[in-house]
Amino acid sequence: MIEIVDYVSKKMITYFDMSLKKCKKDITDTAERRPEPNKRPFVSKTIQAEVKKACEVMEEGGIILYPTDTVWGIGCDATNAEAVKKIYELKQRSDGKAMLILVDSEVKVNFYVKDVPAVAWDLIDYATQPLTLIYDGARNLAKNLIAEDGSVGIRITKELFSNELCYRFRKAIVSTSANISGEPAPAIFEEISEEVKNAVDYIVNYRQKEKGRPKPSGIVKVGQGGLVRIIRQ
Fold first, then answer.
1. In the 8-state DSSP scheme, what is residue 73?
2. Could you list the pLDDT tens digit for every one of the 233 residues in the chain?
3. How far is Cα 188 from Cα 185, in angstroms, rounded to an integer?
4. 79: Cβ contacts below 8 Å, ≥ 6 apart
5. What 3-state class would DSSP assign to 132?
6. How far, in Å, CA of 174 to CA of 153, rounded?
7. Is 142 exposed, middle or buried (0-12, 13-18, 19+ CB in 10 A)?
């Protein structure tokens, strides 16, 4: 039996309550998700302009400060090792502590993970708040972004700005808290230090005045054979 945290629905709890024999085919198989019909939400001209500028900066190897589906994050092209290195240097942390990436759709997960466990799709489908899944077999990413064990954390963002950013950039984007390593992670824009603001190449001019205090995402490690390990609720 696996304890399921409160961001997973009752339907997901039922899934894990089934006997291993009954759901063996579901949890041991790997599976790919095919692209769904392209139904994009309406995006204002203000967001479009900010997305365009942020994409241009990342295409040039720069790093950005941007709002996500959780807290504000520092980001860059997740396939550019030099850009990833800049973030490690900004945060003053070892590249042995891997950072997660954001994508806009399920099909992108297939591109960055060699074999996606079928159980991952269930967790994605039934999660009711932002959820980062850690997968083995990371690929097509900057080598210094992948953990020593070959894993990577990926979150499908549904927040309007970061989803549009990932969609338009067409590549995964690094997302790590906007703080120097060892210092408190800021929940809102006004808590981000001037040191961090001055170190990035572009600050997205959107959602900067919000006062709500979002929480970091849940983190769950998934593996073959139905492995599910909760790292952060």
1. E
2. 334 443 344 444 333 333 223 333 344 455 666 555 567 888 999 999 999 999 999 999 999 999 999 999 999 999 999 999 999 999 998 776 789 999 999 999 999 999 999 999 999 999 999 999 999 999 999 999 999 999 999 999 999 999 999 999 999 999 999 999 999 999 999 999 999 999 999 999 999 999 999 988 999 999 988 889 999 98
3. 9
4. 140, 141, 142, 171, 172
5. strand
6. 10
7. buried
Location of structure tokens 């006062």 = 211
What's 60's DSSP letter? T
Angstrom distance (rounded) from CA 223 to CA 229: 9
Which residues have a Cβ under 8 Å from the Cβ of 22 and sit 6 or more positions away? none
DSSP conformation letters of 25-42: HHHH-B--PPPPP--PPP
The CATH code of domain 45-232 reads: 3.90.870.10
Question: What is this structure's pTM?
Answer: 0.85
Alpha-carbon gap, residue 126 to 98, rounded angstroms: 26
∠ Cα 126 128 131 (to 5°): 85
Alpha helices by DSSP H, the chain: 10-17, 20-28, 45-59, 81-91, 106-112, 118-126, 160-169, 194-199
